[in-house]
Amino acid sequence: MGVFTGRTALVTGASRGIGRGIAERLGRDGARVAVHYGSNGAAARETVAAIEAAGGSAFAIRADLRAPGAARTLWEEFDRHADGLDVLVNNAGIGSTRPIEEISEEEYDAVFAVNVRAPFFILKHGMRRLRDGGRVVNISSGLARTAAMPDNMAYAMTKGALDVFSRDLSKILGARSITVNSVAPGIIDTDNTAELLHGSADGWKRAAALSALGGVGTPAEVADVVAFLASHDGRWVTGSWVDVTGGSLT
Ligand code: NAP
Q1: What positions does the domain Ketoreductase occupy (predicted)?
Q2: Residues 195, 62, 139, 244: is their CA dihedral positive or negative?
């Protein structure tokens, strides 16, 4: 029996990267996992297969979170497979590295749509599906608390907004013993950071030097923290911002 046996979890953006790491960890600990994705169905099926190969249970659901009405689409898909949930991880996100002088309104709107509007409306329409005693984890970023990469400003702004959402939603859902927290990774080795880490000869070394621990994080290292917050052991932690940057902000 795993700590999530009998529980249902939904992880957005679980086809790849950090979301996949979280989905696999929750699945390994017994949760039935809804593996959400935007466009890469093959990658989502790989996540489902990996969870099943480890003895777990999972299903894939698709919703493009850039699209208006995306949250309703996501829940319609989810409802075809399950009748409620215990753990919701808002992980899907897109970056933006274009400096303020160059960023268009379209790119700004897209990054806010996926990173802020989608989690907000996923909760608005999903709160009634979330069972009492449940968990919400929003994947933020260390960039919400440092100006180290100012060209990522629009992206960092979305994570600042997401953190306010975590904080205030914790007061609303606390009455039902549902916790809400932000988890803020530093630089993690995923598709999202491929150019940063592998696009130049010293990219990895420079990224690792930002961390007090002298390394680049992995999806599994973020997943372990999410699993703690989602477990019974995390029941008295809510409205918080958990630094998972390997000491990149100190
Ligand atoms: P990633 O490897 O690029 O994966 C992104 C995931 O989000 C994929 O599953 C993707 O689905 C989904 N997604 C993207 N756009 C979508 C859309 N329009 N609609 C629905 N789903 C969409 O990203 P990652 O690095 O794992 O990042 C995951 C989260 O961690 C993000 O919120 C990111 O801001 C945050 N974060 C990452 C880092 C880092 O260093 N990697 C650091 C701090 C915070 P498809 O496969 O279908 O495209």
Answers
A1: 7-190
A2: negative
Predicted model pTM: 0.99
Answer whether residue 205 is part of any domain. no
Give tens-digit pLDDT for 17-70.
999 999 999 999 999 999 999 999 999 999 999 999 999 999 999 999 999 999
Site residues for ligand 1, CB cut-off 6 Å: 13-19, 37-40, 43, 64-66, 91-94, 114, 139, 141, 185, 187-188, 190-193
Counting from 1 in the atom list of ligand 1, the atom nearest the Cα of 143 is 43
Within-domain flag for 200:
no
78, 34 contact by CB (below 8 A): yes
Domain, as residue range, for 29 = 8-191+218-237
The answer as to whether 122 is a domain residue is yes
Q: How far is the CA of 175 from the centre of ligand 1 (A)?
A: 31
Residue of 144, 28, 43, 159 lying closest to 91 (CA atoms): 159
Q: Residue 120 is part of a domain; what is its CATH number?
A: 3.40.50.720
Q: Is the pLDDT of residue 247 over 90?
A: yes
For the chain, how many structural domains are there in total? 1
- Nearest 5 degrees, angle CA 68-CA 70-CA 74? 170
For residue 104, give every residue at least 6 positions away whose Cβ sits within 8 Å of its Cβ, in sequence order, or none. none
Under 8 Å between Cβ of 71 and 36: no
At 175-186, the pLDDT tens digits run 999 999 999 999
